Amino acid sequence: MFKIGEFSRIAQVSGRTLRHYDTIGLLKPVHIDPDTGYRFYSAEQLPRLNRILALKDLGLSLEQIGRLLRDELSPSEIRGMLTMRKAEIEQTVRAEIDRLRHVEYRLAQIEQEGALWAHDVILKRVPPRTILSIRETGAGNHFQELFLELQKALPAGRSPYEQVVFIMHSEVYEEEEMDIELGYLLADAVHEPFALAPHRLLTVRQLPAVELMATLVDTNLDGGASGYNILGSWLEANGYEIIGPGYEVFHEISWPNEGRNVMEIQFPVTRVEVA
After folding, report:
1. Of the candidates 88, 116, 144, which is a domain's last residue?
2. Fewer CB within 10 Å, N or C, the chain?
3. How distant is the alpha carbon of residue 162 from its chain centre?
């Protein structure tokens, strides 16, 4: 038999680990001296210890390892446990690959521009949002006029109205025939529809919870074109695709007066699965 120090050196496992395995019942000493309390181990325990270390290296918890060694699990139960661990590892690998793509993209931008770009792209999951809106088709100036009309029509004291939002429903960009929903995100889901005109009604609906890519732009500089360019590059570099209409959410809007116009461009996205 070996004292714990000798067994530790032979097995290349720390004494602290062996004592912990003893405490949780994973690897008990073959003998404990009743007078000194010294633990003694046998060479016959090395295969069990090696099995514990191998399973631990697979990422199984000590509790799972104990169950594997203690219970007479069927091959299908062992297969299920390892399959679940395999799925966890694959998910971690995918997340790290995504992170690597983000880093590579930033490095490429630094090489091209000499500094970090002005528009950071983020991924975020947003909860369901309530919107008071109207959807129409027309050219850009039509929606400018519609926005001014909407501002005048809103009741005084706009406490329930948060950011102005444009939702781009057109599948293909057509400058003269844009399908756009214009309105306000609401702080309170309880809101009655109201009419801009007899046949132009603003209605309340809920936008679904979704994962978005987003970036902030100052539209006074280039109308937001640089933000769209950045998002396009980010999509291609990081392996995502757009799965729904785009949103232009204004955190600050002074138009048609002079002042800051800060817009967040958002697109619902999903990661492209590589076969």
Report:
1. 116
2. C
3. 25
Return the closest-CA partner of residue 265 out of 222, 217, 223, 207: 217
103 and 30 within one domain: no
Closest to 69 (Cα-Cα) out of 31, 41, 27:
27
Residue 83, both tokens? 């399959």
Burial-class residue 95 by CB neighbours within 10 Å (0-12, 13-18, 19+): exposed
Ramachandran angles phi, psi of 170, nearest 5°: -60, 130
Choose among 182, 131, 139, 140: nearest CA to 160.
Answer: 131
Whole domain around residue 250: which residue ranges? Answer: 122-271
| 144 and 261 assigned to the same domain | yes
Encode pLDDT of 37-59 as tens digits: 889 999 899 988 888 888 888 88
Q: Which residues of 126-146 are buried (b: 16+ CB within 10 A; e: fewer)?
A: eeebbbbbbeeeeeeeebeeb
Q: Flag whether the pTM goes above 0.85.
A: no
- The domain total for the chain is 3
DSSP 42-72: -GGGHHHHHHHHHHHHTT--HHHHHHHHHS-
